[in-house]
Design brief:
single chain, about 750 residues, mainly alpha
C-alpha cells in the first residue's frame, strides 16, 4: 500500500476502506494473496455465432497467467472450447494447401478478365502481379489484415501498464525497447508520423519507456532526448495523457492535472458534456479515466525524472488563465471548481458514481476481452477495474490482458510493435473491392470466402449509437474483429459495396445482411444530411474545449469521406434518387473547398477527401461536367507531382498550404486516379502519368513501398500507416483504368455490364 499525492491510501486493487469510493471486493479470486474483484455481471444476451469471434462473455476463459503472457495468437482468436481448438488445428493444417490453391487459381487466365484492346503496356501485368500478391495474403478464414502502424506512445504505454500492474517480463520489455529505439531520430526525438516534426509527448513517453527497459540516462541517445525535452518545456508542456501516465508513478502531481469526476456517468444524454457528447473512442477512454482521476493511484517509481523538467525546482510553472470571456478561460475556471468539489464530494455519491463507471466498463467489454477493439480504452479500462477491486485473476481482467497481447506485432528482427487498433473488416472489404475491380471473377473462391467472413461479422445487436437513435434496428459492420458496441458507418458502406461485387452461392443471405446494413445506415444520418463514423449528431463543440481533451479530436461530426462512401453505396443500391441520398449529395456539394478539394477526416487529407467524394457524386448521378467535378479535376491536376504520382503530408491538417503536397505514395496516387477516372479523365495526361507511376514503382512481387502515413485517427494528432493501403488502392485504381467504373443498375452484378 502506498500513499497517493492527495494523502489518501491506495492499495493495488484491494478495495480497502482507505481508498475513497472503492467497490468492495467479491468473495473469491484466483490470484493468491489478492482479494477478488467484484463478481462479473450476468453475461450479455447471446448473440448469433460468428466466425472468428469468441463466444458469450460468460464462456470466455483465455489461457495463460497474467504477467506471463506469451506471444500473440492469430488476431481475433481467444476461443477455448474443444470444438474451436480442433477447428483451429484443422485450419492451420490446411493453411499452406489453401494458399497454394488460391495462388495457382489466380494465375489461371480463367480467373482474370482479359485486358481490353489497346491497353497500355505493363498495366495489366502490374494488376495481375498485385492480384496474386493480395490473394496470397488472405487468411484461410477469408479475411485480410495489414499492420496498423501509429507511433511509439502505444509501445511506451504498454510498458508503463506492465510496470503499474507488476506483470513486466524481460522478453517483452527487451523487444519493445528494440522497436522504440529503432524509431528514434538523429536529434534524439520521436515523431508521430514518418518524416514528421519532433513531438514532445511522444519523446517523453519513449524516453521513460527506455528507462524502464534499463537504458542509462547518460547514454548518448538518452541525453539527446532529455536535452530536447527540456528545451521544449519539459514534462509541464506535455499533453494531459502523458502527465497522467507519469502521475501513476509520482513523476507528476495529480493535483496539477485536469479533474475528471466520475459523476459524469450520471448525466443524462440531454445534459451538455454527458459522456455521449463525446465520440465513442473518447467516451471509452474518459469513463475509465474518471475512476483513475478519482482514486489518484501512485506506484513506487523505480527512478526519478528530474532530467525531464525544464526547471526541476519548479516542475509546474504557473500559467496565466485565459480571459474569462473565452471558452478556454471559462473551462479553466470550471476545472478549478471541480478540484474544490473533489474535496467536498459526497462520499456515497462518489462511491456510486465509481461503481456505475465500473459497470459501464464491464458491460462494454467485447467477447474477446477488449474494449471497442482499440488499445488505449482497453489499457485504461484494465487500470480502472483493477483500482476498483478486480484482481488480475478475475475473468474480466484475464480476458482484458489477453486481448492486449493481440495488439502486438512481432517483427523479424525481434522487435515488438503495438497496434493501436486492428482493421480486418476494413481491410477485407477494401481487398475484395480491389480484386473484383481488377477483374477477378466474381465467384472466385477467395471472394466467396471473403464474403462468408464478412457476413459472419455482421452486427445484429444494439450498441451505444442507440442513445441518439432509439428504436433503430441494428445492422452493419465494425472496423475490428470484435467491436459490437460500435459498428462503423464507413465500414458498413464499404462492406455493402464489396458484397455487391461477389457472386455468393446464398444470395438470400447476402440480401438480408445488405438490407439491414442499408436500413441502419440510413437511420444514422445526421440532421444536416451527412454521416459521421459511429454516431449520429455527435456535434457538440463543448467536449473539445475541456482542459482534459488536448489529445486530439473527441467528437464525431459528419465528414465528407464517410458521407461520400455512404452516398456511393446508396447509389449502388439504386437509391440515388432517395430524398436522404439527395440531402447527402447537397451537403457534399456545399462542403467543397474553394480550391476544388474536399477535406479528408479519416485519410490524408484533401487527396483522400477528393478521391472519396468525386466517385460518389458521379455514381449518384452528378454529371462529370458538373462545375464541382471540374473544379476537383483541376485541383488534382494542379497538385500532381513531377514523378506522376500524388502525395500529401500530414502537415496539411495544421497548415492548409500543405494541401495536396508531399512525396508521392501508392495509396494517394490511387485515390487521385480513382477520382479522375470517375470524372471521365481516362484518356487525360494526368491519368496516363499517374498509372505509369504506379506501374514503374511496383516491385517484382507485386507490392509497393509506402513508409508515409496516409491514414488518420485524429487530424494531425494521431496519424496511421495502414500497411495494406499500399496494395488495395493501387490495385483498385489499375483495375478501374483497365475495365472502367464498377457501377451497374441495382440488382445487376456489376461485372455483367462489361465482362470480357
Amino acid at each position: 500500500m502506498t500513499a497517493t499525492t492527495d494523502g489518501s491510501a491506495e492499495g493495488a486493487g484491494a478495495g480497502s476502506e482507505s481508498t475513497p469510493g472503492a467497490v468492495p471486493p467479491g468473495p473469491t479470486g484466483r490470484t493468491a494473496g489478492l482479494a477478488a474483484g467484484p463478481p462479473a455481471p450476468p453475461p450479455a444476451p447471446h448473440a448469433p455465432a460468428r466466425s472468428g469471434r469468441a463466444g458469450p462473455r460468460g464462456e470466455y476463459a483465455p489461457p495463460g497467467v497474467p504477467g506471463l503472457l506469451g506471444r500473440p495468437t492469430r488476431p481475433g482468436t481467444g476461443r477455448t472450447t474443444p470444438r474451436d481448438a480442433a477447428r483451429d488445428t484443422a485450419r492451420d493444417t490446411a493453411r499452406d494447401t489453401m494458399r497454394d490453391t488460391v495462388r495457382d487459381a489466380a494465375r489461371t487466365t480463367a480467373d482474370l478478365r482479359r485486358p481490353p484492346d489497346g491497353t497500355r503496356p505493363g498495366v495489366y501485368e502490374a494488376a495481375a502481379r498485385a492480384t496474386r500478391n493480395l490473394l496470397d495474403r488472405q487468411d484461410p478464414e477469408g479475411w485480410w489484415k495489414g499492420d496498423l502502424e501509429t507511433n511509439v506512445t502505444m509501445d511506451a504505454e504498454d510498458l508503463l501498464l506492465r510496470q503499474f500492474l507488476g506483470i513486466q517480463d524481460e522478453a517483452t520489455t527487451r523487444a519493445a525497447a528494440l522497436f522504440i529505439r529503432g524509431e528514434q531520430r538523429e536529434d534524439g526525438t520521436w515523431a508521430t508520423f514518418h518524416g514528421g516534426p519532433p513531438e514532445l509527448s511522444a519523446t517523453i513517453e519513449a524516453y521513460v519507456a527506455l528507462r524502464l527497459a534499463g537504458d542509462a540516462p547518460d547514454a548518448p541517445h538518452m541525453t539527446r532526448a532529455s536535452a530536447w525535452i527540456r528545451a521544449h518545456g519539459g514534462i509541464a508542456a506535455a499533453r494531459v495523457f502523458t502527465r497522467i501516465w507519469l502521475a501513476l508513478f509520482g513523476w507528476w502531481n495529480w493535483e496539477h492535472l485536469p479533474e475528471l469526476p466520475p459523476e459524469l456517468v450520471f448525466l443524462p444524454p440531454w445534459v451538455p458534456l454527458n459522456i455521449y457528447d463525446f465520440g465513442c473512442w473518447a467516451r471509452q477512454t474518459i469513463v475509465p479515466l474518471t475512476v483513475v482521476s478519482a482514486l489518484r493511484p501512485v506506484r513506487p517509481a523505480p527512478f526519478t525524472l528530474d532530467e525531464l523538467h525544464a526547471d526541476a525546482r519548479t516542475p509546474n510553472p504557473a500559467r496565466r488563465l485565459a480571459p474569462l470571456t473565452s471558452w478556454d478561460g471559462a473551462f479553466q475556471r470550471m476545472d478549478k471548481a471541480l478540484h474544490v468539489y473533489r474535496r467536498f464530494a459526497p462520499r456515497r455519491l462518489r462511491k456510486a458514481a465509481m461503481a456505475g463507471a465500473g459497470r459501464w466498463i464491464v458491460e462494454r467489454q467485447e467477447n474477446d476481452g477488449c474494449w471497442g477493439g482499440i488499445q488505449p480504452p482497453a489499457v485504461y479500462s484494465v487500470i480502472a477495474l483493477h483500482l476498483l477491486g478486480y484482481d488480475l485473476g478475475h475473468p474480466v481482467m484475464r480476458a482484458g490482458l489477453e486481448s492486449l497481447e493481440r495488439f502486438a506485432v512481432w517483427r523479424a528482427d525481434g522487435a515488438r510493435m503495438i497496434e493501436a487498433c486492428q482493421s480486418p473488416v476494413w481491410d477485407t472489404c477494401l481487398a475484395a473491392i480491389a480484386l473484383a475491380d481488377a477483374g477477378l471473377r466474381p465467384d472466385h473462391p477467395a471472394l466467396v470466402k471473403a464474403a462468408d467472413w464478412m457476413l459472419g461479422e455482421e452486427i445484429v445487436r444494439t450498441g451505444d449509437w442507440a442513445v441518439r437513435r432509439p428504436g433503430l434496428a441494428p445492422g452493419g459492420w465494425a472496423f475490428e474483429f470484435h467491436n459490437d458496441t460500435y459498428p462503423d458507418i464507413d465500414d458498413t458502406a464499404e462492406v455493402v459495396l464489396a458484397l455487391r461485387r461477389i457472386k455468393h452461392p446464398d444470395p438470400a443471405r447476402v440480401e438480408g445482411a445488405i438490407a439491414r446494413g442499408v436500413s441502419w445506415t440510413l437511420g444514422m444520418q445526421s440532421r444536416n444530411g451527412a454521416w459521421g463514423a459511429f454516431d449520429a449528431d455527435n456535434t457538440s463543440p463543448l467536449p473539445n474545449k475541456l482542459p482534459f481533451c488536448d489529445f486530439g479530436e473527441v467528437i464525431d461530426p459528419p465528414s465528407a469521406d464517410v458521407t461520400a462512401h455512404v452516398v456511393e453505396m446508396l447509389a449502388f443500391e439504386g437509391r440515388a434518387g432517395d430524398a436522404r441520398t439527395r440531402r447527402g449529395i447537397a451537403w457534399l456539394l456545399a462542403e467543397q473547398e474553394r480550391s476544388g478539394a474536399w477535406f479528408g477526416r479519416w485519410g490524408t487529407n484533401y487527396v483522400y477527401g477528393t478521391g472519396s467524394v468525386v466517385p460518389a457524386l458521379v455514381a449518384a448521378g452528378i454529371a462529370p461536367g458538373h462545375p464541382a467535378i471540374r473544379r476537383a479535376v483541376r485541383w488534382l491536376e494542379s497538385v500532381q507531382n513531377e514523378d506522376g504520382g500524388w502525395g500529401e503530408d500530414q502537415r496539411s491538417y495544421k497548415d492548409p498550404s500543405w494541401a495536396g503536397k508531399g512525396a508521392s505514395t501508392p495509396s494517394q496516387t490511387a485515390w487521385a486516379l480513382m477520382a479522375l477516372l470517375s470524372a471521365g479523365e481516362r484518356e487525360g495526361k494526368a491519368v496516363e502519368r499517374g498509372v505509369a507511376h504506379l506501374v514503374e514503382t511496383q516491385k517484382e512481387d507485386g507490392t509497393w513501398d509506402e513508409p508515409y502515413f496516409t491514414g488518420t485517427g485524429f487530424p494531425w494528432d494521431f496519424s496511421i500507416n495502414y500497411h495494406l493501403y499500399r496494395q488495395v488502392f493501387p490495385l483498385t485504381a489499375l483495375g478501374r483504368y483497365l475495365y472502367g467504373e464498377p457501377f451497374a443498375p441495382a440488382g445487376a452484378h456489376p461485372a455483367a455490364a462489361g465482362e470480357a
